[in-house]
Write a structure and sequence with these properties.
Length: 253
Amino acid sequence: MEFKGAMGGIYRLTEWITRLAATNLLWVLCSSPFMICLILKLIAVNMNLANESLVMNWAMAILAPLTLFPATSAMFTVVRKWVMGDTDTGVFRTFFKGYKENYKQSLIGGIFYTLLFVIMYVDYTVYMTQFSNLQIVGVIMLILIIILLVSMFNFFSMVAHYHMSIGQIMKNAILLTLIRPFRVFSTMLGSAVIIFIGVKYPVLFLFFIGSIVAWFAFFNFYGTFLKMQDQMEKMKQKDEEQESVEDKKSDSL
């Protein structure tokens, strides 16, 4: 049954609210060990409990590859369907299918990213607090941390969209971040605005923030993918035309 007019608009709006909420709740549920540690970390910071905060840092570093990365990859599998026009796909089935199929790649990628984040964050902290004459190194580390953070949007999008080895995915995620910085950083800025709204209304993190950020990130990634694909097709067509001209010249000789 298809509704039209105002009723149709309301129906479609409630459909999208349900899709976003269901996907976000599945993401929160599957990454709940990490999320619990994150909440405890924030409480420890707010209460100035340095030792407890440090313990939570290590707990999150261990749990992120095991829970957060696979759950986020599964969420990107769902929003990929939406961006590509398949809005009627079952959220539950698509989420857990993506979770199962991409778990290994997400785990390995999560270990890689977590190790790099830990190393760079430790270096940044040391250079900024212990070596005042080498703070420029700390600034460089901060820039690298931001680039690595932004490349994660491409990483999750590629895990959901491509069938590649994990090494190729991580390499291409970072390369795409470097060669297409404006679109990727627009994703980061848009996500920062969405997260800022979530900070004002924390309940939104439970129902909407994660899935909206994932949809926005994959939307930007897919736009970049289509543009690069179009450029490659034009280059291929140009090469074929050039070869055709050269063949005609050689035939006339």
